[in-house]
Fold this sequence. Notes:
In chain A, a hairpin with a 4-residue loop joins strand 3 and strand 4. Chain A has helices spanning 3-15, 21-33, 35-58, 65-77, 79-129, 139-144, 148-151, 167-170, 178-183, 216-219, and strands at 191-192, 205-213, 232-240, 245-251. Chain A starts with a helix and ends with a strand. The radius of gyration of chain A is 43 Å and the shape is elongated. Helices cover 55% and strands 11% of the residues of chain A. Chain A has ten helices and four strands. Chain B has two domains: 6-98, Rna Polymerase Sigma Factor, Chain: A (Orthogonal Bundle), CATH 1.10.1740.10; 107-192, Arc Repressor Mutant, subunit A. The longest helix of chain B is centred in the C-terminal third of the chain and has 39 residues, at 167-205. The interface between A and B is large, with 32 and 43 residues.
Amino acid sequence: MNCQKFESVVSELARGRMMAVAQRDEALAHRDACERCAARLRDEEMLTRGLQSLAAEMETLSAPVEVENKLLEAFRTRDVVATPLASRRSNVSYWLVAVAAMLLIAVAVVALRWNAGRVDQPQQAVKQAQPQPKQENNNLAEELAVNVSDRGNSLPVRSKPPKRIHPTTLRRPASVPVANVANSEIATDFIPLRYTSAASLQDGGQIVRVELPRSALANFGLPVNMDRYNERVKADVLVGVDGLAHAIRFVQ
Amino acid sequence: MNLKNELSDSDLLRSMLAGDEEALALLYRRRQGGIYRFALQMSGSKAIAEDVTQEVFLFLMREGHVFDPARGSVSAFLLGVARNYVLRRLRVEHLLAPLGDDADDDAPFLHATTDLCPLEDLTRAETIESVRKAVLSLPSKYREVVVLCELQDISYVETAEILGCAIGTIRSRLHRARALLQEKLRPAAQVEETGSASVKSARCFA
């Protein structure tokens, strides 16, 4: 046995606890050979004696008689027995309420996620169904229409509009092709706003659909039909990652 | 009465829960000493020890049905409850380090009862007092192991049941606790040795 192993058994040895005879003999042999471990064992034995003295000193101590009398009195009056039954009932009702609340929360979360899933699926379907604009459909579109996806190669713009699509707007009859709806819009080129530069669009951005007074067309040098001056016109605003509007295009 | 004396703790508890006052009295007399001493050794306060003893048996009257014989003995169950009450009480009263000169009120349980001569008796009482203080100054997780294993002489297995941890944990905590106790008790012994050495050298010079 070495000093390390002796250290692991010295407490048991000093306390006189049961241990394997061979292990005990080895430990005692090591104690005889190693002065340091012998001193260590003496310290442990001294501590054990001190603790045993303290235990012996307190062995006869017990609670005062008044404690027993109070307990028996309480038992006779049944106060302490009656109370817990009520508290157990209240505990049961508490747990029932807690479980019911957790179930409600779980159902609500599942319902919300299910609704969100229903919104996302048609939105993706619309995107996938949107074809590239066909030039032969409309000559005006050939001149003016610039699909955002066409510009996607040269400009890293995220085409997903941030506007949330309400599920009811997507519930259209299956016979109506979604692509037609997308192709029915005609848009101008993006008109850069004055305080931006093309370099600031390298990081991408978002296109936000807005409505403006038709008079706003004049601000960008576009002709305005004075008969429809008070009407509104749709426009897509290109918002950069810095939150600033970088460009605008008008949609018909 | 004699027949009931032979009943096990579990049987007494069952009778008590059925409304048998005598069973409660018997169970109390059988187990109150260990609980009271445990609380006293853990807290160093007689008042806390009395309160805890009372609380433990009140708990037993109210919630005795939660005792599960498969998880340990009634004695271990009661000591486990007592431990919770003691720790809660110490936390509330900020008595985690209750030692000091103002603890005289709680010290008189140390009394000379031996046949030794007065000086030896005094030395023994001082030794016991210093050990008591050292035990009380241990962190609670070490103190409870020392109290249960060393002072209450409870086995590792039962201590593990009371504290709700593995036997290996009990062993390692006890080992660490004893090392801490030796550290706490060593300075006094070293001062004593240094003092005696200086006296010897003074005599040499004389």
